[in-house]
Amino acid sequence: MPPSDTIQETLNTPVAGRYDVIVVGGGASGTVAAIAAARTGARTLLVERGGCLGGAATANLVAQWVAFFHGETRVVGGIPFELAERVQAAGGSDGFHRYVMGEAAGTPFPLRVLPFNPETVKWVLDGAVSEAGAEVLLHTSFARALVRDGAISGVTVESVQGRLALLAPVVVDASGDALVCASAGVPFQDDGGERQPCTLSFRLSNVDVARFRAVPSDERRARVLDGLRRGELFWESLSFVSTPGGTDAICLMSRIQDIDALDARDASRAEQEGRRQIASIVGFLRREIPGFEHAILADVAERVGVRETRRIEGRYTLSEEDIMQARGFEDSIALGAGPMDRHQPGGTGIRLYAPPQPFEIPLRTLLPAGVEGLLVCGRTLSATREAMAGARHMATSMAMGQAVGTLGAIAAAGSRPPSDVPVSQVQHRLAQDHALFRREQVVRQNPPA
Ligand SMILES: Cc1cc2nc3c(=O)[nH]c(=O)nc-3n(C[C@H](O)[C@H](O)[C@H](O)COP(=O)(O)OP(=O)(O)OC[C@H]3O[C@@H](n4cnc5c(N)ncnc54)[C@H](O)[C@@H]3O)c2cc1C
């Protein structure tokens, strides 16, 4: 929606709070960043536009955390792994499972994932954030970055109270769209405008998941290709996550092309097209797929899931070669596991391949060029498109969140900019908090029985 004209507004915005660290976006990476900052002693505020924390995991019904494991080796510890354990203890998951990503696609890919009930994740995160002592503002949208002399000093937000200013020397942009960075004038990677498709997820109840799982994979693929030919399906996958109990299937089967999620008209079209596709997919599943005959549409995600928008230009740009050659970095602060999954823009396929080893993510990818005090985490890190496809999974995003939350709190405590904090100090604290960030550190776990 390109602006056709401008008007001038004069605003007197009340200052509603002063903090050490403000985190914008309460998704995978931002929630963990806020917990880490608060546990490291910072007065922390977490600002989220929706009514719950969790981001893609909850609002988009992306109901499985990927990338805790590379093969059978766990590569993410610290706060993310603690949250995974808390979700299980709360009855929201029956543990890590083997799962085939892109099931019924040309390149299916086996992974160890943590499937969960998104509703449980919501209250587990509420509890973890409040125990850490961070304040949360839900239903509050970021509006503008406050920048003075090349350094961030806070943000303005819009909530039911109208426009408010919130001040802090450190702001973490965990919005998934690098909204704070855009407002602060941070440059972005040039991506040529191509975007992976969006997906509106939905939940079916009254499904016999065991009966579905017993259908041989070549038969599933044949049925999917038939559905695609008839225009009733939209990509080569029967992509389901089942919650504990085996009666519900969360389906990631819509595929909405040519969407720039940073354009309000495109974003609206994505929701409507997603619902149109879901109506068709549900009919197909009930008619064609064993186990779904009596399925009931129980829920549609609050928002369409967006795989990519902006990636910042940071002090280092992670590349596919860094990942595939397992390059080591002095300033590594998190480990990624992949897979590299690229959903074909404009097509019905997916390209999936694995990094040969867990890969290191340098802190410099989370430090935006040109603005002091501003940090990023999650899918907007400074990376090429290919590298982002391998680093965007939620366990990796959460690990980045722990690193920048910790850094932000250390910087605020010493009244110095984050880029002046020695990385060894951040790594020392991360190690104390059981985070994993060096390839040599990772523990080999026994495969599940
Ligand atoms: C369809 C789909 C399927 C996927 N499948 C998987 C999978 O199976 N497993 C996996 O691990 N990963 C999966 N991913 C990738 C993963 O979900 C994301 O890459 C990951 O969530 C990125 O974390 P994040 O913290 O950057 O963003 P998010 O988790 O998206 O969080 C961003 C948060 O910022 C908030 N926000 C946005 N704008 C504002 C604003 N103006 N003011 C305040 N708050 C704001 C949002 O509401 C949201 O809560 C999938 C993604 C999609 C879209």
Please describe what this structure looks like.
This is FAD-dependent oxidoreductase. Keywords: 4Fe-4S, Iron, Iron-sulfur, Metal-binding, Oxidoreductase. The protein has helices at residues 28-39, 78-89, 118-132, 179-184, 209-213, 217-229, 264-288, 320-324, 385-391, 394-413, 423-432; strands spanning 15-18, 21-24, 44-47, 64-65, 69-70, 73-74, 97-101, 109-115, 135-137, 141-148, 151-159, 162-167, 170-173, 202-205, 240-242, 249-251, 296-300, 332-336, 340-343, 350-353, 359-362, 374-376, 443-444. With 449 residues, it is an alpha+beta fold. The chain folds into 2 domains: 15-193 and 308-442, FAD/NAD(P)-binding domain; 202-300, no CATH class. It has a 5-stranded parallel sheet. The protein has a 4-stranded mixed sheet with strand order 1-12-11-10. A 4-stranded antiparallel sheet has the order 15-16-14-17, covered by helices on one side. Strand 11 and strand 12 (162-167) form a beta hairpin. Helix 1 packs parallel to helix 3 (118-132), helix 2 crosses helix 10 (394-413) and helix 10 crosses helix 11 (423-432). The chain is globular, with a radius of gyration of 21 Å. The termini are far apart. The mean pLDDT is 93.
Fourth-level CATH superfamily of the largest domain: FAD/NAD(P)-binding domain
Distance between the termini: 53 Å
Largest sheet: 5 strands, parallel
Mean pLDDT: 93
Please report the total strand number as a whole number.
23
Keywords: 4Fe-4S, Iron, Iron-sulfur, Metal-binding, Oxidoreductase
InterPro entries: FAD/NAD-bd_sf (IPR036188), HdrA-like (IPR039650)
Protein name: FAD-dependent oxidoreductase
Organism: Pigmentiphaga daeguensis
